[in-house]
């Protein structure tokens, strides 16, 4: 019964989009309360009554919790449509101007949009997008100006930025 | 007594009891439930809020049964806040008693 209570509480909080950290903390605290009541020989039914319904628990703790960031609808739509747009642009530019390379770089917009609009903190977005942007930059400079060396040095920004932005 | 007034008083009481000794969540709930007819759904959110406001901090310690317990202790900011609350409370009670005494 205790495990059921705690699992149901966790599911309830997750459905309310409570952050994982707060969820773990709250379930751990209620586990402590439940076990304290069990030690005092309360029955499961009595404990359920003491601890209250999940709605009561949630209403009272809501001001103290962080919600998980949910991607907005338009962001989800943009991420979904990027592959199709990339294909259309690639084929259009390729057919009209016979410039297949470096037009293929447009496909890198697919992972870029996924990183940009996934709702995480800005520093994780920078760490995710930087390698892709550097690949695009390297290929464009190399293709247009034929300067492959020492342009490759820009890739050294990846570990530098990751070290600077890491937790 | 109105809910709002009771909530304010319970906050002072929670800070006061924890200022006297570190206590674990259930211990605080039992103590205040006995005296003020409160329950987990009043005390627990309050403990969370006071911790987020840095008036309390918590740590884990093993209980007699070996299971971990979350203990709360008051911070220096909590002590300062409690002193202000107690001063306000004493002034408030004094004024109310003057009015009721009339």
Structure commentary:
The complex is a heterodimer of chains A (167) and B (102). Chain A is mostly helical and 167 residues long. Chain A contains 8 helices and no strands. In chain A, helix 7 (122-145) packs antiparallel against helix 8. The longest helix of chain A has 25 residues, at 73-97. The radius of gyration of chain A is 25 Å and the shape is elongated. The mean pLDDT of chain A is 87. Chain B has helices at residues 3-20, 25-36, 40-52, 76-101, and strands at 23-24, 56-62, 68-74. Chain B has 4 helices and 3 strands, in the order H-E-H-H-E-E-H. In chain B, helix 2 crosses helix 3. By secondary structure, chain B is an alpha+beta fold. The model of chain B has no long low-confidence stretch (mean pLDDT 88). The A-B interface holds A 28-29, 32-33, 35-36, 39, 50-52, 56-57, 60-61, 63-64 and B 24-26, 29, 39-42, 44-45, 48-49, 52, 65, 67-70.
Give the tags:
heterodimer; A: mainly alpha; B: 102 residues; alpha+beta; 4 helices; 3 strands; elongated
């Amino acid at each position: 019964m205790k495990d059921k209570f705690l699992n149901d509480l966790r599911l309830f909080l997750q459905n309310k989009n409570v952050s994982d950290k707060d969820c773990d903390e709250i379930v751990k605290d209620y586990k402590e309360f439940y076990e304290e009541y069990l030690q005092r020989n309360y029955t499961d039914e009595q404990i359920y009554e003491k601890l209250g319904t999940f709605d009561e628990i949630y209403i009272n703790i809501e001001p103290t919790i962080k919600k998980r960031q949910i991607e907005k609808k338009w962001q989800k739509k943009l991420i979904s449509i990027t592959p199709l747009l990339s294909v259309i642009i690639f084929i259009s530019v390729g057919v009209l101007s016979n410039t297949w390379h470096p037009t293929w770089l447009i496909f890198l917009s697919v992972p870029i949009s996924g990183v940009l609009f996934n709702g995480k903190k800005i520093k994780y977005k920078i760490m995710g997008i930087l390698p892709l942007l550097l690949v695009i930059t390297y290929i464009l400079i190399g293709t247009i100006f034929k300067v492959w060396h020492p342009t490759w040095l820009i890739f050294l920004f990846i570990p530098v930025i990751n070290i600077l932005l890491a937790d | 007594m109105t809910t709002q007034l009771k909530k304010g008083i319970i906050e002072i009481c929670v800070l006061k009891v924890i200022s006297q000794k570190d206590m674990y969540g259930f211990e605080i709930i039992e103590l205040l439930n006995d005296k003020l007819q409160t329950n987990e759904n009043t005390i627990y959110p309050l403990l969370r809020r006071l911790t987020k406001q840095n008036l309390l901090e918590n740590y884990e310690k093993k209980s007699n049964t070996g299971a971990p317990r979350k203990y709360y202790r008051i911070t220096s900011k909590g002590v300062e806040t409690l002193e202000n609350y107690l001063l306000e409370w004493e002034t408030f009670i004094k004024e109310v008693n003057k009015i009721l005494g009339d």
